[in-house]
Design goal:
There is one protein chain. By secondary structure, the chain is an alpha+beta fold. 35% of the residues lie in helices and 21% in strands. This is phosphoinositide 5-phosphatase.
Length: 813
């Protein structure tokens, strides 16, 4: 039996403050999440804001399902093949949406004995729920009662709304990934078929608040994308067997979708396991012009062979497996909604027809083909509408074709309404829904799992931490960081890098290249400032051409110098003039995960990007790194303004889950900070000539303010054993004598770092954990000791109440 969640209340076990709001969710559950704010105002005035209000409404929208006695996160084929009794500890993580809430219970139950563990895991008190669609349609098949069921399970691994979650992540998870299972129950056989959808599995983005078609942007280079792409399809192969991609994107030259499709095709051809992945490009709108979807029959000629080879799952009434599904179709358009719904419906109908002809039409059996197809079409159309509402806030476009097999004038009007709803939802409601998703999945900084006291588990984890060296290896990472204010200069073309050459509007690359070094580091992070002219035109609309030019020159130089260990551009980002580029050794790309970008403007009180900071964070094995490139306020007497710029960036640069800069193991902060030396010009020149750098350091604004803990607290700066990098005549080592700044006036500065990073061997860790559990040091508590330990806990005698979960923080973006 499968249940739908229609109402959710959160009850505090430590406070009665919100008990009067137990009916709150039911009174607003029928409202769209974006309208919840209007409905709650009166309630909030009377009782205050419930910390779980938005999450309660989100869970009460009717899109979540669960089962008490069977694993609703698994397909029928997996459930039958595994054969063991249902327990939520074995649920599919990709579709286990409340796992973050359940994690403390799961950890606690792991430390219990067999009978207690089974009681918690199978007792029906705790359930695993999935988001998606589920429905059943009964009908007569000949003389027998039969039924269709459609279950769609949305992955929670890269969950989000339409324009806030695009593309792939470094673990190979894609946005809007949905596994749809079609079941056909008949007295003689039970049929199951799986088909999947998911956004194009490369790194790309699309801005939502735009009229017309929002611009698509590829955010990683092909070499930096391939590892994540490979992980995605390797995961699919492990879960489903052979994979056949059906790409429905627009193939017209010059179209944004065509760029995406070409990139998709490139990575498919680079996938190492050639025999496990095949691809069909099928521009459905071009083939089925004017919504003539009868032409989908031409698709069968392209995929018909794999349709039969992949097959479907069949089980007889005794539970014996008759046939297994051996492969899967992965269908995608841009959003994996409208076109995908139509084509998946077609593939499923074809597959069901193969099953019926093979197993049910022998011995003269007949059935009502119209009723049969109509029952399936109705379910699939409802499935498409609900998936679309979850992702975009409106029903699917062209869903009437799935139900009626044709289009009418009312269908066109309905599509127009749905497009209008999508525009509103995408631009005005996504933030609220995304916040609720992040809270449910534990991806916000304010949340942490509830801690359930378990002496035996704590003993295991303590011993595991003490013996960390047995499963955790330490490695040295070489990182080179470089910063340069280029004053909108461009790199020179040609082969002449003579230091004597100086070209207007050109910068000599030789200084930069010498600083990058000879030995190949693992990571090269470069921060540019004033990469373009800081004028009104650039501030209003950033031109990436100069950044792309610099990226190409640097990458070429790195690969010319380090041909045996070539580099790839991992990621770059430009905030008007402040830019960051991170290059990774290609043989090291597979070690990098969870790459993210954040930026903040500080010019004109945070309204303009002529000044600001850009950050890139990543995980390297099991250590986290963050690189920040900044350009602070200029002016000899504006040191306090620069302090505020740094503190603002420190507090406001946030990654997913609310992680800030300091939530990393190692942080590199570099850029044109604009701090000055508080001495008159002539004395500075004298000390430079005499190389009295220690005296200059004593008057350096940044050094002084760091000592006073006014700025960059807990950061360390390397020794300043070189002349000030500011300000020079163009292309020379001669300091400019003029007070105004109107030429290139900086030299690049480099730092080379050896960074210890940690690599956890999960297999060794799991083996050691199991050994510790069996050892006497981890099992010194028997049942009686456990019971007496819990008897000591008395909430009545507790000193105060633990705080309630914090209210969701309003974003200022």
């Amino acid at each position: 039996m499968l249940y739908r969640i229609d109402e959710v209340d959160f009850v505090s076990i430590t406070s009665s403050k919100y008990d009067d709001l137990t009916s709150y969710a039911s009174s607003t559950a029928s409202l769209p999440l974006e309208d919840h704010g209007h409905a709650r105002r009166g309630v909030r005035q009377a009782y205050g804001e419930h910390p779980c209000a938005e999450l309660s409404v989100f869970l009460s929208e009717g899109y979540f399902y669960f089962g008490y006695d069977w694993d609703s996160t698994k397909s029928l084929q997996k459930t039958v093949k595994l054969g063991h009794p249902f327990a939520w500890t074995s649920c599919e993580r990709s579709f286990f949406w409340n796992r973050f809430l359940m994690k403390p219970i799961m950890k606690f139950s792991a430390s219990l004995l067999g009978s207690e563990k089974r009681a918690i895991q199978t007792g029906g008190i705790f359930v695993a729920c999935f988001e998606g669609f589920a429905d059943i349609q009964e009908f007569m098949f000949g003389q027998n009662r039969a039924a269709f069921a459609v279950f769609s399970r949305i992955s929670c691994k890269r969950a989000g709304t339409r324009y806030r979650s695009r593309g792939i992540d470094d673990d190979g998870n894609v946005s809007n990934f949905v596994e749809t299972e079609t079941l056909f129950a008949h007295p003689d056989f039970t049929f199951s078929h799986l088909i999947i959808r998911g956004t194009v599995p490369i790194f790309w983005d699309q801005q939502g608040f735009q009229l017309g078609f929002p611009r698509i942007q590829l955010t990683r280079t092909p070499p930096a994308t391939q590892p994540a792409f490979d992980r995605h399809f390797t995961n699919l192969k492990d879960s489903y067997g052979l994979v056949h991609v059906v790409d429905l994107l627009n193939q017209k030259e010059g179209q944004a979708e065509h760029v995406l499709s070409n990139a998709f095709d490139f990575h498919v051809r680079k996938y190492p396991d050639v025999g496990a992945l095949s691809q069909t490009t099928f521009d459905v709108y071009a083939v089925c012009k004017n919504s003539n979807f009868e032409r989908l029959e031409s698709l069968f000629h392209l995929i018909g062979r794999d349709l039969q080879v992949f097959g479907y799952f069949v089980m007889d009434p005794a539970g014996t497996i008759v046939r297994e599904q051996k492969g899967i179709f992965r269908v995608n358009c841009l959003d994996c909604l409208d076109r995908t719904n139509i084509v998946q419906n077609y593939i499923v109908k074809r597959t069901v027809d193969l099953f019926v002809r093979t197993y049910l039409l022998g011995s003269g059996n007949t059935y009502d083909a119209y009723l049969f197809q109509n029952s399936l079409s109705e379910l699939w159309s409802s499935n498409g509408d609900q998936l679309s509402r979850i992702y975009t806030g409106s029903n699917a476009i062209k869903s009437s074709y799935g139900r009626l097999g044709k289009f009418t004038f009312s269908s066109l009007f309905e599509d127009f309404k749905n497009n209008a709803k999508r525009f509103y939802s995408n631009n005005f409601s996504e933030k609220v829904r995304q916040r609720a998703i992040d809270v449910l999945l534990g991806k916000t900084a304010e949340l942490s799992p509830v801690i359930i006291y378990s002496p035996s588990r704590d003993a295991v984890e303590g011993e595991l931490e003490r013996r960390k060296k047995e499963y955790c290896d330490r490695e040295q990472l070489i990182v080179q960081v470089l910063t340069w204010n280029t004053n909108a200069a461009i790199p020179l073309s040609g082969e002449d890098y003579s230091p004597l050459i100086s070209v207007p509007k050109g910068i000599l690359l030789v200084t930069l290249f010498i600083l990058i070094g000879v030995a190949p580091p693992h990571i090269v992070a470069i921060g540019f400032q004033e990469i373009v002219q800081l004028n009104a035109t650039q501030i209003m609309s950033v031109d990436p051409e100069r950044r792309i030019m610099w990226e190409g020159f640097i990458l070429k130089y790195l690969n010319d110098r380090h041909s045996k260990t070539p580099f790839s551009l991992l990621v770059s980002h430009q905030l008007v003039g402040t830019t960051i580029c991170v290059f990774i050794r290609s043989d090291f790309l597979d070690a990098v995960r969870a790459v993210e970008i954040a930026s903040k403007k500080t010019g004109m009180g945070g309204m303009a990007g002529n000044k600001g900071s850009v950050a890139v964070r990543m995980d390297v094995f099991n250590s986290s790194l963050c690189f920040v490139s900044s350009h602070f306020t200029a002016g000899q007497n504006n040191a306090a303004e620069r302090d505020r710029d740094q503190i603002f960036a420190l507090n406001e640069l946030q990654m997913s889950g609310g992680r800030d800069i300091l939530a990393h193991d190692v942080v590199f902060w570099f850029g044109d900070m604009n701090y000055r030396i508080d001495m008159d010009r002539e004395h500075v020149r004298e000390h430079i000539v005499e190389k009295n750098y220690s005296i200059l350091r004593e008057h350096d604004q940044l050094t002084v303010r760091m000592k006073e803990k006014l700025v960059f607290q807990d950061f360390q700066e390397g020794e300043l054993n070189f002349a000030p990098s500011y300000k020079y005549d163009l292309g020379t080592n001669i300091y400019d004598s003029r007070s105004e700044i109107d030429i290139s006036d900086h030299k690049p500065v480099k730092g080379v770092f050896e960074v210890p990073i940690f690599k956890v061997d999960r297999a060794r860790e799991s083996k050691l954990r199991a050994e510790i559990r069996l050892s006497s040091s981890a099992t010194y508590l028997d049942d009686a000791t456990l019971e007496s330990s819990f008897d000591l806990i008395d909430l009545k005698d507790a000193d105060g109440s633990p705080p309630l979960p914090p209210r969701p923080r309003t974003s200022t973006n």
